[in-house]
């Protein structure tokens, strides 16, 4: 989860090259390659932005950083495993082969749970954050896109603008929801599997809180404007 959180922070700061290195490390070093699912939106977003800013050279740079860092990090992991086991071992591939491609029971051997297992754990661990991360997108669109358009039609100046574009915010948070979709489809469930999604879900919850602030401010401001008394000067009779 820490590596995922670092990647998300670097991604938001648009330090894409360094974010690619950490994302590759997050997939290979813990020997849990399934975490690559949460980086699919990041990869698409990084390639798109690199291509938009620097054309082909930017895309080639991102792909080269990913390839080189993957070879170097995987080589180091294999070297350490060879030193410890005295044979060639690719632990990440063994995990995929056993859990996803195995003909036997695979991870189901360790127990299966219904979808409600993850939903209960989300509520217990994130509390209000679990409830806020779900409606963040409708709240964001309403607060920063619908309300300003309505105000513009009424001749009112815009009050607040979002720090990020809607498409960027969707990309930042989509990895967590993509991870949940994959994990919910798997029969074997563990609480620790949710940790990967927490940074993305909490970012969505924070965005939802910011949107609620805008909505409350608009409601309060509208109420006060209707109750506001006309100003009178000190010397008026």
UniProtKB/TrEMBL annotation:
Keywords: Endoplasmic reticulum, Glycosyltransferase, Membrane, Transferase, Transmembrane, Transmembrane helix. One of its GO terms (molecular function) is alpha-1,2-mannosyltransferase activity. Pathway: Protein modification; protein glycosylation. Pfam families: Glyco_transf_22. It is a multi-pass membrane protein. It comes from the Eukaryota. Its EC number is 2.4.1.-. InterPro entries: GPI_mannosylTrfase. GO terms for biological process: protein N-linked glycosylation. GO terms for cellular component: endoplasmic reticulum membrane. The chain crosses the membrane at residues 20-47, 59-80, 128-152, 164-184, 196-220. It is found in: Endoplasmic reticulum membrane. Its main location: endoplasmic reticulum. Belongs to the glycosyltransferase 22 family. This is Mannosyltransferase. It comes from Pinguiococcus pyrenoidosus.
